[in-house]
Amino acid sequence: MKKIIIAIDGHSSCGKSTMAKDLASKIGYTYIDTGAMYRAVTYYALQHGLFDADGAIRLAELEAALPDIHITFRFNEETRRPDTYLNNEYIEDKIRGMEVSSHVSPIAAVGFVRSALVAQQQEMGLQKGIVMDGRDIGTVVFPDAELKVFVTASAEVRAQRRYDELVAKGQPASYDDILANVVERDRIDSSREVGPLRQADDAILLDNSHLTIPQQNEWLMQQYLRVASEE
Ligand code: DC
Q: DSSP code of 68?
């Protein structure tokens, strides 16, 4: 089997990370969640007062701070997934909360943030043997990746999945609000000027609206086996 790069892009809340993580652990590849990197920069900006009261980003200060933002991943044996660290501080739980989620889209639209993170992501892929998920992996980060997958599901299905997750955690949730948020995030991710979400011409489309998690994991495994065993 040759060592390859697997790029998984797609809409928010469509289960990309679940399938990427599962494949990486089965085949012994490194899994990299690039959304966590944009979330880490957002967390730093919130901690350092780099958002004005009206939500505008203090761009000059953020750019000057970039060399002080060191994002790393450490594999957690218990959860079997990498945890995100910012300057050696464990931030995995903090970057998943509402505050970071509601500020991350504008940070991910800033050109100098994207170029800095894309350069780090490209370095992580130098040895191959990685599964990376995000929005621009197959188009910008690794345009030559051997396997590219673009994952989607209908907005209604994705909203229902998030609603079920929140209810299972005992958190209050409104399906209508979640659906509106899913649609709005799609709009922002797809319409930004730098690194917009779009399917690479050579990516395989997976609509998992009607697939179970084991079914989609199996589908991805078959794609990997096909590509990695090619001469
Ligand atoms: O996948 P996620 O929800 O954790 O991503 C968080 C945000 O970062 C989301 O607004 C999309 C953005 N993102 C991006 O612009 N490019 C990537 N490669 C990954 C995430």
A: G
Mention every residue, 6+ apart, whose C-beta is less than 8 A from residue 7.
Answer: 132, 137, 138, 141, 142, 145, 147, 148, 149, 200, 203
Ligand 1 centroid from CA 39, angstroms: 8
Instruction: Give dist(CA 72, CA 76) in Å, integer.
Output: 13
Over the stretch 149-183, which tens digit does the pLDDT of each residue have? 999 999 999 999 889 988 888 878 889 988 998 89
Q: Domain-by-domain residue ranges, the chain?
A: 5-225
- Architecture of the domain made up of 5-225: 3-Layer(aba) Sandwich (3.40)
Q: Is 133 touching ligand 1 by the criterion CB < 6 Å?
A: no
Tell me the one-letter amino acid at 175.
Answer: Y
Angle (CA) 44-186-43 rounded to 5° is: 5
CA 170, CA 122: separation in Å to the nearest integer?
A: 39
35 Cβ closer than 6 Å to some ligand 1 atom: yes
Please give the DSSP secondary-structure letter assigned to residue 95. G
Mean per-residue pLDDT over the chain, rounded: 93
Q: Which amino acid is at 107?
A: I
Here the tokens at position 151 are 């994952």
Q: Can you tell me which atom of ligand 1 is nearest the CA of 141? A: 18
Pair type for strands 30-33 and 147-152? unpaired
Tokens of 136: 């621009």
CA of 121 to the centre of ligand 1 (A): 13
pLDDT higher than 80, residue 231: no
